[in-house]
Amino acid sequence: MKLLAVETSCDETALALVSCEGTLENPRFKVIKSVVASQVPLHRQFGGVVPGLAKREHLKNLPALFEKIGGDSLEKETDALVVTVGPGLEPALWTGIVFAKNLAKRWGKPLVGASHLQGHLYSFLLEWKDKKSVADIFPNVSLIVSGGHTILLSLQSLVKYKKLGETRDDAAGEAFDKAARLLRLPYPGGPEIEKAAKKGDPRAIAFPRPMIRDKNYDFSFSGLKTSLLYYIKQSFKADWKEFNKNYGGDGVEIKNLEDVAASFEQALIDPLVYKTAKAAGEFGAKSISVSGGVAANDLLRESLRKEAKKIRVDFFAPSPKWNTDNAAMIAVAGYVNLLKKRRLKIEAQPNLGL
Ligand code: KG4
Ligand code: ZN
Predict the structure, then answer these.
(1) Which of 142, 157, 201, 345 is exposed most, by the fewest CB atoms within 10 A?
(2) Dist. CA 9 → ligand 1 center (Å)
(3) Distance, CA 187 to ligand 2 centroid (Å)?
(4) What domains can be seen in the chain, in order of their start residue?
(5) How far is ligand 2, taken at its centre, from the CA of residue 201, in Å?
(6) Which residue's CA is the closest to the ligand 1 atom numbered 1?
């Protein structure tokens, strides 16, 4: 069957038409069309996502993207529509929901709700080329790392999973974004820090690895961010008052930016990799997967790949374009819900879980 999916939970407006076949044990997907309108340049000037602006942009982008993807010519081939109902920014979510509801009514097609987090979790299936059945990757340990979430899961199947741990404060992507702001780099911070880090020495500054030795599978990143702030302050050799005054203004330059970025990136990634590999061992996983915007980070992907090889388990990560927000992954989550007969209420659920 073919599903038309709509995603507007944060600052990307996205639509996709995806062919979905097979069972929950071995589903197969083919992306026919996928379009994304990014609002990043707009929100960049505010240093983060502004919900009211996001809503306005989604309202503007949705009809344009709909035409771009094929408009009403898709009616015949579309079997059902899928829309992200949460988690995300409430005003942003509603724009996609109202759009999808109206279209489903006009076309007389069913509408299915999907969780944005499940979209990330299943996104590696968009490129599944393995001959073996999807069922063979289980038990699996999966890390979801995005701007709003950092969750470690143990999966027995696509639909049977348990949360092992999550962040106690900032999400990994949020930590990258906040650190970038401290370093005077633009939003979103993850790709900017990664770019600077590639030219730096990750051992230059000994930032802490919060909770890395704790027995649980939780994470914490706000202390790391504070360490970065202290480091910057110390390097200015100024008192707080002086620091705040100068640092707020222009012309403040961090001389060893590349080393700071590399050391920060390494400190953030180490606990993610260490705990994911540890969980894979403890739960007898046959595979590890990673998803979400932060999974576009090369160091994270390669470190997880190396760890997986060391402990002889498979490793799956979607290519970077499916890591950041898109609607193709929402179609996958919608298809799983259809097969599982899971019906989510078609209304904005800002705090929806998996
Ligand atoms: O999944 P996503 O597109 O949106 C949410 O669902 O939150 O994730 C966005 C987050 C941002 O915090 C961004 O800084 C981070 O993903 N990100 C990265 C990279 N690309 C995006 N973080 C580290 N390295 C990257 N290359
Ligand atoms: Zn996301």
Answers:
(1) 345
(2) 14
(3) 15
(4) 2-124+322-340 (3.30.420.40), 135-318 (3.30.420.40)
(5) 29
(6) 293
Asked whether 324 and 12 are in contact (CB, 8 A), the reply is yes
pLDDT tens for the chain, residues 1 to 354:
999 999 999 999 999 999 999 999 999 999 999 999 999 888 988 888 899 999 999 999 999 999 999 999 999 999 999 999 999 999 999 999 999 999 999 999 999 999 999 999 999 999 998 778 999 999 999 999 999 999 999 999 999 999 999 999 999 999 999 999 988 899 999 999 999 999 999 999 999 998 998 999 999 999 999 999 989 878 766 556 666 665 655 445 677 899 999 999 999 999 999 999 999 999 999 999 999 999 999 999 999 999 999 999 999 999 989 999 999 999 999 999 999 999 999 999 999 998
Ligand 1 site, residue 296, Cβ cutoff 6 A? yes
The CA 89 to ligand 2 mean position distance, Å, reads 11
Ligand nearest to the CA of 89: 1
For atom 8 of ligand 1, the residue with the nearest CA is 293
Give yes or no for residue 294 CB within 6 A of ligand 1.
yes
Q: Select from 9, 146, 264 the residue to mutate for testing ligand 1; criterion: most ligand atoms less than 8 Å from CB.
A: 146
Q: Does 325 contact ligand 1 (Cβ within 6 A)?
A: yes
Residues 6+ apart with CB under 8 A from 344: 85, 112, 113, 114, 115, 337, 352
Closest ligand 1 atom number to CA of residue 12: 3
Nearest bound ligand to the CA of residue 177: 1
